[in-house]
Amino acid sequence: MTAPAHPGRMLFVNLPVADVARSTAFFDALGFSFNPAFSDETSACMLVGEHAFVMLLVREKFAQFAHLPVADPTTHTLALFTFSVASRDEVDTVGAAALAAGGREADGAEDHGFMYSRSFYDLDGHGWQVMWMDPAAAAGAEAPAVAPEDVAAPV
What we know:
By secondary structure, the chain is α/β, with parallel strands linked by helices. It is built from 4 helices and 8 strands; from the N terminus they run E-H-E-E-E-H-E-H-E-E-E-H. A 4-stranded mixed beta sheet has the order 1-4-3-2. A 4-stranded mixed beta sheet has the order 5-8-7-6.
């Protein structure tokens, strides 16, 4: 991988949810943690990476930041979210946890040898993919040849 253009830059993705407590419990079951300093009854700050966060916001609070109508994620897709885990086994563990916590499976496992993933919908209908990529392939080493049309987009 290449060096980031802006080291130390933080990323906050804002996501509308129907019930912050319910969504927090769902993602907690998947192993995510939350920063209480940026969480209250209308929002929860989910830590995704060292400098990456997802703000779970009740729809009304999310609408305060949006200048356009808020879409219903059960009928429209505006974004798909993918996060990596440390192993193929962890992909299956997190995928099973998502289903056990009330999520819906989007796709079965996708195995491309150097990359393995599962996709699911969270409680509000947002599409997520959990994936593992062989560290050698992620570092730019030659990965097994896979045609671009054989690698599905997340969810």
